[in-house]
């Protein structure tokens, strides 16, 4: 684990546009603890949400960079102890790794195929499969249980000082979230490390009474194999006991005991993954439509199973013939509206074919993404607003129509996306910023609007209504401003796929890893 990577690649949520960029935090890597420990020591993070699929959403947290830097620095300093602790588990397949040239500070140890293969391999002689899912894992981790996990509960309760480094880790996590003890932030890579500390402690507890345990755990999901239903029920009780030790619970809706052999993956999703798109224009068009129909059916039956992402992994590597583009474009826009989590991938396809000189229907694209934006406005969904304005900006589509309710949104990242679009001449409709001005408060740099307060004020987009230069009055953020640190990269672009590398037809040896597409590296 490297501090540089935590700051530049592991701070901001990977699900948001590359407009949000923490690369400049590299300039702060030499800041001493006196700056990072300056008052205030506690901050309130930005809260937003992203679509999970099927109408469900996942909360996302963007912590204050000062408190985050303290936590990241601490984890790096204790990386050797953490690495040794991770080695306790016999069943974990979610050990966080720092891969050279990875897109994030922390990467998944195994890809989708490897996780599936290991499930098959582990169950070769078993008659029962126990599936257990931890309910709302990140959101329900009790921060005081972090030292319990590292040092045992008894040791941590007997010594609450920083002599036990787990106690300091507990405090640093709480400092990032307004002192709250319930939950850890979803989004920053530091939480992958902390969640695995809890996961390994659970494994240790289960292994103590089940030394020959057979199976795997991936983050918050257990897949364990037994010979009889009775053994599976006994093992389920041990998992529940381990969870209760850390004040966690099992998600009963996602936990089950199944007879072997048990399916590893939905047959509908597997049929998408193994579908071959042919190269001649008429066959290619028919194959795309047929594959889309399969994806629609899978989506309707299993709305949380990322069926449209599976569809996109099949069409992304293929060079779509120009005469088939209008069909694919319409499909992509339909998916964007009904399953907005796919916009991250769809935007890349649209930008790519624009760069190839294809006849994109910009009016259709504008209509579709304004609908996505309006849904975001109506529900205060920052993700949809951010991506809509980012796609419109990247496509150089000017919007002169007012979006009703836009001036009333309070998601800081969404507001910054709108202000960026206005700055770049993309959104030229009238915009009332009075409500947003009221969010630039005297203590705004350490509340949930910290990014808006810092970026909008330093760029002159918004000003403190009391006429106070809040940045100049804060030691840490004033130092960031003087070093020209920004969390917005207005020059960022969506990089198109290399046209010459696209395939004429499906090549199963050059498939896109669905696990990486959905979860990132």
Explain briefly what this protein structure is.
The chain is α+β, with helices and mostly antiparallel strands and 521 residues long. It has helices at residues 3-8, 33-36, 65-77, 79-86, 112-122, 137-140, 145-151, 153-158, 165-175, 190-209, 229-245, 267-273, 281-301, 307-315, 325-338, 343-355, 362-379, 382-394, 412-423, 434-437, 450-458, 475-482, 514-519, and strands at 46-53, 56-62, 128-133, 215-218, 221-226, 256-259. A hairpin with a 2-residue loop joins strand 4 and strand 5 (221-226).
What does this structure look like?
The protein has 521 residues and is an alpha+beta fold. Helix content is 46%, strand content 7%. It is built from 23 helices and 6 strands. It has helices spanning 3-8, 33-36, 65-77, 79-86, 112-122, 137-140, 145-151, 153-158, 165-175, 190-209, 229-245, 267-273, 281-301, 307-315, 325-338, 343-355, 362-379, 382-394, 412-423, 434-437, 450-458, 475-482, 514-519; strands spanning 46-53, 56-62, 128-133, 215-218, 221-226, 256-259. The strands form 2 sheets. The protein has a 4-stranded antiparallel sheet, sandwiched between helices. β1 and β2 (56-62) form a beta hairpin. α7 crosses α10 (190-209) and α17 packs antiparallel against α18 (382-394). It is flat and about 65 Å long.
């Amino acid at each position: 684990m490297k501090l540089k990577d935590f700051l530049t690649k592991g701070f901001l949520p990977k699900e948001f546009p590359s407009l949000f960029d923490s690369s400049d935090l590299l300039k702060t890597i030499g800041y001493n603890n006196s700056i990072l420990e300056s008052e205030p020591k506690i901050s309130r993070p930005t809260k937003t949400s992203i679509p999970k699929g099927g109408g469900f959403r996942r909360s996302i947290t963007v912590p204050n960079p000062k408190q985050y830097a303290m936590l990241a620095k601490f984890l790096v300093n204790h990386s050797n102890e953490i690495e040794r602790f991770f080695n306790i588990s016999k069943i974990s397949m979610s050990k966080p790794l720092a891969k050279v040239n990875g897109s994030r500070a922390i990467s998944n140890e195994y890809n989708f195929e490897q996780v599936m293969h290991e499930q098959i391999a582990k169950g070769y002689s078993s008659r029962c499969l126990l599936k257990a899912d931890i309910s709302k894992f990140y959101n329900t981790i009790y921060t005081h249980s972090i030292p319990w996990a590292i040092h045992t509960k008894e040791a941590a309760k007997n010594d609450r000082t920083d002599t036990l480094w787990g106690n300091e880790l507990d405090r640093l996590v709480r400092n990032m979230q307004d002192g709250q003890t319930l939950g850890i932030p979803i989004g920053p890579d530091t939480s992958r490390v902390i969640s695995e500390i809890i996961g390994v402690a659970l494994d240790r507890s289960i292994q103590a009474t089940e030394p020959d345990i057979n199976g795997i755990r991936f983050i918050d999901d257990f897949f364990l194999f037994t010979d009889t239903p009775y053994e599976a029920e006994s093992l389920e009780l041990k998992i529940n006991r381990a969870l209760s030790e850390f004040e966690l619970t099992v998600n009963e809706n996602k936990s089950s005991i199944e007879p072997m052999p048990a399916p590893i993956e939905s047959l509908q999703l597997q049929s998408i993954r193994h579908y071959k798109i042919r190269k001649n224009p008429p066959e290619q068009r028919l194959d795309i439509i047929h594959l889309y129909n399969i994806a629609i059916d899978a989506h309707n039956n299993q709305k949380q199973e990322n069926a449209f992402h599976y569809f996109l992994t099949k069409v992304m590597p293929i060079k779509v013939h120009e005469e088939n583009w209008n069909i694919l474009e319409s499909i992509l826009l339909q998916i964007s509206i009904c399953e907005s989590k796919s916009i991250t991938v769809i935007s890349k396809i649209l930008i790519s074919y624009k760069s190839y000189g294809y006849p994109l229907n910009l009016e259709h694209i504008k209509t579709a993404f304004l609908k996505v934006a309006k849904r975001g406005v109506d529900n205060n969904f920052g993700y949809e607003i951010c991506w809509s304005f980012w796609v419109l900006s990247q496509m150089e589509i000017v919007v002169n129509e007012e979006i009703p309710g836009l001036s009333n949104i309070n998601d800081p990242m969404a507001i910054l996306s709108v202000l960026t679009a206005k700055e770049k001449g993309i959104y030229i409709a009238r915009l009332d910023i009075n409500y947003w001005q009221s969010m630039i408060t005297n203590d705004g740099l350490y509340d949930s609007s910290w990014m808006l307060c810092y970026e909008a004020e330093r760029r002159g987009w918004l000003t403190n209504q009391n006429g106070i230069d809040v940045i100049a009055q804060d030691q840490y953020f004033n130092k960031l401003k003087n070093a020209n640190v920004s969390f917005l990269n207005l020059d960022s672009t969506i990089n198109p796929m290399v046209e010459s590398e696209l395939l004429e037809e499906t090549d199963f040896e050059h498939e896109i890893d669905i696990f990486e597409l959905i979860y990132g590296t």
